[in-house]
């Protein structure tokens, strides 16, 4: 099989690539070639694998690559929420136009590629006529409150239409917020969900910009990658006639996250997090889903992480063995 | 006010134009100029009005016109369902690309135009995981089963995002199936909803391709136009924080339609309709909404037609007084 991962050099894309290379196959078929397309080249450990081809550059300039014929595609590349709010046209280009180029290129290749589109819990939002339920389900009416969420939702429907027409064999998996992410804090409003775990483990003091009772559906990187692969391998019939589903999320409050941190790493680590409300971030987060359910993903055998302790432990284990995790990440862990 | 109607030379667009010219104002402001953009020039009676400017040509070639600054826009232009199924790329161009050009042109004009996007009951459809309710409501999860319905739904969300960003002041009104349409039968699968009334009134025998118990939400042209203008004139607050709503539909079965025809026009006219099942059309129609509700439109004061007799009577009155209705349309009425 020849597989493409767009966004294949990013945090999730590279982890997905490592998992596919480790398995060696998808749906019982050997993966001979794994193409990683991203703005920047894939990490060295991936490029060292003979099956990997790394392509760096904007997706809109990769038409020849995209139409070269793939058995399977994981479409993860995307401008993120904050970027799209700051630069509307960049968002439309990076998300909408790039995905259309990908879909049309796959169609032009003559091969009906199996495709997983990484959508997002950001398709959900409150509106005055239709307040968001405490748990957003597969049947909740989406009402995105960001351009990013709007793009993801539009593209879910476009992927469904290309699939209905027989141009591709697509499906869309709505990712929950992924934590714990390694590396530095970034500009995303969700950055603190990782930061309040990652920074104290590294020995750094940090602030939590929202109240302790804020609740949100989270997923560890490992569980998220397992979800993407499972949705890829699911038959069309198993998708239940609908193509977009919620991946499982663990619904936790910030206080539960910090209690788990204390259990796993001790009170000294937990004490490195102070609450300092940031009205801008708290305002954005108040429009987000407080929790999710995922019946259709459960029907595929998928489950949320067992506990937030497990999610923290996965991060600690990753820091000890995985590429891409900085050496000083566990400096604060006695 | 300077107003644009895209699709302004078509059946609904021209009727909307005549209604606006008759009123002379929208939202209490005088309409000084009414631009009708369509593939073909506007009908003569409209061009005779000094306030009307007719622009013929593909929308994708009208960037200069579209960015010339409008106070209000009714965006009706669209490739229809059958066309989009036959020619996927034409549908994407005519619906998705053209609407993006319109939205970006309005944004570039520097004026925040009030815009009504004509969406469709075709955004709804059944899927295995989520069967369609007997009445599709404002809160029913859309699941389009055609490219046309997919485009309409994607564009509802895009209009909402341009509005959220402050580029336009948009809203989307989902039209129910409009009957009775004048003129000839066309290739649309819904053509018979008008045909089984229009043809017998013209003295022509016709067939009904679906069973008598088939039910569907219909709206007369007059009620549909009234709905579009009311949605245009509604304040953002009155839209209830959500931008797409179902226009009211009269939920009727084919047998109720024919009973109404007999009441209004007599048994001899009714007898010109024979049932001859067409599996292709019956199959398509079986995926359509059997009825609708429209609570949010009701809150704006909108109502469905009172009865199908009223809808037939409106058609008969139109044939006696309106441009665009052929002289021989009532030949079968004794």
Key features of this structure:
three-stranded mixed sheet; UDP-galactose 4-epimerase, domain 1; 334 residues; alpha/beta; 13 helices; homodimer
Could you walk me through the main structural features you see in this protein, from its secondary elements to its overall organization?
2 copies of one chain form a homodimer. With 334 residues, chain A is of the alpha/beta class. The first copy, chain A, has 2 domains: 202 residues, Rossmann fold; 96 residues, UDP-galactose 4-epimerase, domain 1, CATH 3.90.25. In chain A, 40% of the residues lie in helices and 17% in strands. Chain A has 13 helices and 14 strands. In chain A, the strands form 4 sheets. A 7-stranded parallel β-sheet of chain A has the order 5-4-1-6-7-8-12, sandwiched between helices. In chain A, helix 1 crosses helix 8, helix 7 runs parallel beside helix 9 and helix 9 packs across helix 13. The relative contact order of chain A is 0.13. Chains A and B meet through helix 5 and helix 6 of A and helix 5 and helix 6 of B.
């Amino acid at each position: 099989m020849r597989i493409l991962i767009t966004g294949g050099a990013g945090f999730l894309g590279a982890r997905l690539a490592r998992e596919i290379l480790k398995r060696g196959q998808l749906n019982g078929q050997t993966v001979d070639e794994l193409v990683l397309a991203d703005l920047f080249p894939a990490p060295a450990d991936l490029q060292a694998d003979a099956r990997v081809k790394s392509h760096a550059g904007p997706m809109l300039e990769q038409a020849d690559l995209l139409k070269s014929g793939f058995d399977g595609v994981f479409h993860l590349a995307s401008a993120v929420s904050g970027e799209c709010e700051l630069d509307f046209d960049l968002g439309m280009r990076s998300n909408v136009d790039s995905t259309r180029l990908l879909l049309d290129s796959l169609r032009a290749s003559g091969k009906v590629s199996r495709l997983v589109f990484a959508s997002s819990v950001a398709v959900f939002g409150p509106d005055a006529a239709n307040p968001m339920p405490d748990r957003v389900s597969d049947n909740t009416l989406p009402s995105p409150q960001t351009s990013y969420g709007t793009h993801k939702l539009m593209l879910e429907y476009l992927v469904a239409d290309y699939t209905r027409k027989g141009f591709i064999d697509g499906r869309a998996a709505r990712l929950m917020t992924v934590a714990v992410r390694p590396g530095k804090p970034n500009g995303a409003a969700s950055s603190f969900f990782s930061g309040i775990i990652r920074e104290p483990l590294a020995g750094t003091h940090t602030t939590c910009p929202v109240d302790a009772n804020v609740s949100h559906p989270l997923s560890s990187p490992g569980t998220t990658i397992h979800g993407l692969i499972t949705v890829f391998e699911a038959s069309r019939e198993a998708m239940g006639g609908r193509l977009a589903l919620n991946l499982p999320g663990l619904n936790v409050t910030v206080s539960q996250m910090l209690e788990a941190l204390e259990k796993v790493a001790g009170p000294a680590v937990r004490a490195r997090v102070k609450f300092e409300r940031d009205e801008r971030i708290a305002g954005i987060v108040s429009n987000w889903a407080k929790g999710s359910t995922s019946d259709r993903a459960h029907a595929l055998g998928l489950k949320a992480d067992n506990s937030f302790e497990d999610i923290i432990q996965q991060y600690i284990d990753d820091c000890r063995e995985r590429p891409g995790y900085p050496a000083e990440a566990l400096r604060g862990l006695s």
